[in-house]
Amino acid sequence: MTAVSKELLAEIKNDIDITWEDAAGDEKLSGCILRGMNRINDLCGTQFDYSTETGDSQAKDLLLNYVIYARAGALDDFMKNYQADINALQIAQEVKRYAQQQAEESGTV
């Protein structure tokens, strides 16, 4: 992932109460968002859709919280506080992969 959509940036800015325009701040926040997306994707072994309309809401919620903790300089606390959510998302992805594998082996896909 190389860019954050304008819609996702606007949504996260709204969620964290950034109401002013600041190009340098947007660039910095976009970098934080990208790092969060990459981290969550790596932890779960998949590429989530973080778009505002069709995105995976569980991954998007984790991303928002990642950004909040990253801006506060508390990423260690993020991992501790959201480990159960990360584990649940990892398990859900494994279940999807397993179901897809079973469907492919049985020829139903």
Write a structural description.
This is Phage gp6-like head-tail connector protein. It comes from Lachnospira intestinalis. Helix 2 packs across helix 3. The chain has five helices and no strands. The protein is elongated and about 55 Å long. The protein has one domain. By secondary structure, the protein is mainly α.
- What is the residue-averaged pLDDT? 91
Tally the structural domains.
1
Element string (H = helix, E = strand): HHHHH
* Form type: elongated
Low-confidence stretches: none
Please provide the count of β strands.
0
State the end-to-end CA separation.
28 Å
Protein name: Phage gp6-like head-tail connector protein
